[in-house]
Automatic annotation (TrEMBL):
Keyword Transferase: yes
Ranges of residues in domain Aminoglycoside phosphotransferase: 35-274
Keyword annotations of the record: ATP-binding, Kinase, Nucleotide-binding, Transferase
UniProt xrefs under Pfam families: APH
GO MF, one example: S-methyl-5-thioribose kinase activity
Domain of life: Bacteria
Record-linked Gene3D superfamilies: 3.90.1200.10, Phosphorylase Kinase, domain 1
The protein's Enzyme Commission number: 2.7.1.100
Assembly with partners or alone: Homodimer.
Protein name: S-methyl-5-thioribose kinase
């Protein structure tokens, strides 16, 4: 078989991967007996569930273009390489948080990985009004551990620089974020779409807001230049798979070296959109209020767990070149060390608030929307939910350096009623 890239199909997958030992073990020896379904619901790639006598796996393969748009928008296959490298690092930094990688084929841009089962996508779960026990805990730990352990706070200088160089190659996926997240929503870009005419007025207001546009470009500069840690890069509610009790993280193909607060900021932006979309998904007012309170408690927990875990790692795993213990603890200067950590966490907080606000804008004004809002059939109701998100996003970006803590963010979300 040639090594030239060829997209898989349900018909060819068995024949093409049937010879792999890992597939024989995980799925079963007789590839003819496998059931193969393409289940990709994302914007970019092919995803197959392969089932056999011995079990099932996921096969994810990159396409040479953006699935959502088609072959008019080429996108390099090497994103599978970055996804693979991110997955194995995330597994090392926060064991059990991501699907186990079973096989990687660079020339075919494909990853065979553990199938999460019976997990479903978090968005789906929340739209059905179902809670997830421990969600804030799992995501707070994941965000803190990957942030800390992928940075100069933890790694040797050589390892960190090698990783920063490796992920610096993820140019095209970063370009998607640079354009679709940080630029297009704030002017009349070609690929934008929004609920019209209901939102036209507020969209025009946003695009006239000069202070907002300046602040967003400050955040974009942080995204492009502040290579503090390996970020997941696409940590939204479609990149989390859950049961009622467990949460796992998938799809890190956008991985890059960026600001500590990027992933947790995107995530919180997604939670806030779900918060404002819920009235369209739960008709009973009390039940809806209860679920919305739960979403805000998840935000609160995610951030407080992040803080606690980051501080714990600061005290116990600070082996990198930054804030060396030789300057602090070894001199008995514990207060200075704790104070430096608090200052850094303050900076992370101000960044995450900005990223959360921008994420809310781009999911309502840009190319890629979120199902929580996009599936609302009543256009007026949908626009009312979206308008709350747009205004909250604007408030967060503009006031990110003035908000005193997560309580202030949650209060702003409640006020946007
Ligand atoms: P894309 O990069 O195209 O967004 P994803 O990695 O998000 O692709 O996968 C698309 C869908 O495939 C997910 O929404 C999920 O339903 C399913 N999926 C992906 N990985 C797994 C997995 N490890 N276990 C179970 N389902 C998965
Ligand atoms: Mg995805
Ligand atoms: Mg998806
Ligand atoms: Mg993806």
């Amino acid at each position: 078989m040639s090594n030239d890239y060829k997209p898989l199909s349900p018909e060819t997958l068995g024949q093409r991967l049937g010879g792999l030992d890992v597939m024989k073990q995980a799925v079963g020896g007789n590839a003819d007996a496998w059931t193969v379904r393409e289940v990709g619901d994302g914007n970019l790639n092919l995803v197959f569930i392969v089932e056999g006598d011995a079990g099932s796996v996921i096969v994810k393969q990159a396409l040479p273009y953006v699935r959502l748009v088609g072959d008019s928008w080429p996108l390099p296959l090497k994103r599978a390489f970055f996804e693979y490298h991110a997955l194995i690092r995330q597994e090392a930094r926060d064991p059990g948080s991501v699907p186990q990688v079973l096989h990687f084929d660079e020339s075919q841009a494909l990853i065979v990985m553990e199938r999460l089962q019976p997990h479903i996508i978090l968005r789906q779960q929340t739209m059905e009004g179902r809670k997830v026990a421990g969600l804030g805990q799992t995501l707070g730990l994941f965000a803190a551990r990957t942030a800390f352990r992928g940075s100069d706070l933890s790694m040797t200088a050589g390892d960190k620089k090698a990783d920063a160089a490796l992920f610096a190659g993820n140019v095209e996926l970063c370009d998607i974020t640079e354009s679709l997240v940080f630029t297009d929503p704030y002017y009349d870009a070609e690929m934008n779409r929004h609920t019209t005419p209901q939102l036209d007025g507020i969209v025009a207001d946003l695009r006239r807001d000069e202070a907002l546009k300046v602040e967003v470009q400050h955040m974009k500069r942080a995204f492009t230049s502040r290579g503090e840690t390996m970020c997941h890069g696409d940590l939204h509610a479609g990149s989390i798979m859950v049961t009622g009790e467990q949460s796992r993280i998938i799809d890190p193909e956008f991985a890059f070296y960026g600001p500590f607060g990027f992933d947790i900021g995107m995530l919180i932006g997604n939670y806030l959109m779900a918060y404002h979309a819920m009235p369209a998904h739960i008709s009973d007012a009390d039940a809806c209020r209860d679920f919305q309170d739960w979403i805000l408690s998840v935000i609160d927990e995610t951030w407080s767990v992040f803080r606690e875990e980051f501080l714990r790692l600061w005290r116990t795993e600070r082996t990198g070149i930054l804030y060396p213990k030789a300057l602090y603890e070894d001199q008995g200067h514990h207060f200075a060390s704790e104070s430096a950590a608090e200052q850094l966490l303050g900076e992370i907080f101000r960044d995450l608030v900005g990223f959360a606000g921008i994420e809310m804008h781009r999911r309502i004004l840009g190319l890629a929307h979120v199902a929580e809002l996009d599936t609302i059939e009543d256009e007026d109701l949908k626009a009312r939910c979206e308008a709350k998100c747009l205004k909250l996003g604007q408030f967060l970006v503009i006031n990110r350096n003035r908000l005193t803590g997560m309580d202030a963010v949650l209060a702003a979300a409640r006020r946007a009623e």
